[in-house]
């Protein structure tokens, strides 16, 4: 394996590791479907249908991954979800 191939392989591995973080949204008995959907559209840039599907998954399954990416990108979005009264964490 050449040095260039080895460097490219290391970069690809680093990129994949960096994208392994996700925001998990958890079910609660407080927030309405409308509030959850509107918040996901506003904070996570979801389309309405995507936000609606996530809200349904959270309701019926208890949790749903709503965003994946690098930790530094997800942190402010997770904070905004928490500020809106939703239950979320980065994993």
What features would you describe in this structure?
With 91 residues, the chain is of the alpha+beta class. It is 60% helix and 19% strand. The protein contains 4 helices and 3 strands; from the N terminus they run H-E-H-H-E-H-E. The chain has helices at residues 3-18, 33-44, 48-61, 71-83, and strands at 21-26, 63-69, 87-90. Strands 2-1-3 form a 3-stranded antiparallel β-sheet. The longest helix has 16 residues, at 3-18. The radius of gyration is 16 Å and the shape is elongated.
Note the topology.
Elements: H1 3-18, E1 21-26, H2 33-44, H3 48-61, E2 63-69, H4 71-83, E3 87-90
Antiparallel strand pairs: 1-2, 1-3
Helix pairs in contact: 2-3
Note the main attributes of this structure.
91 residues; alpha+beta; three-stranded antiparallel sheet; 4 helices; 3 strands; 60% helix; elongated
Spans with pLDDT under 50 lasting ≥5 residues? none
Strand content: 15-25%
| Biggest sheet: strand arrangement | 2-1-3
Q: How helix-rich are the residues, as a percent range?
A: 55-70%
**How many E-type strands?**
3
State the shape: elongated
Radius of gyration: 16 Å
Helix count equals: 4
Short account of what is shown:
The chain is built from 4 helices and 3 strands, in the order H-E-H-H-E-H-E.
């Amino acid at each position: 394996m050449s040095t260039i191939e080895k460097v490219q392989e290391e970069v690809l591995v680093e990129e994949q590791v960096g994208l392994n973080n996700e925001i998990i949204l958890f079910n609660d008995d407080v927030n309405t479907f409308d509030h959850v959907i509107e918040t996901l559209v506003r904070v996570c840039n979801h389309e309405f249908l995507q936000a609606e599907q996530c809200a349904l998954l959270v309701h019926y399954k208890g949790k749903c991954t709503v965003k994946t990416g690098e930790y530094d990108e997800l942190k402010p979005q997770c904070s905004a979800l928490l500020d809106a009264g939703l239950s979320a964490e980065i994993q």
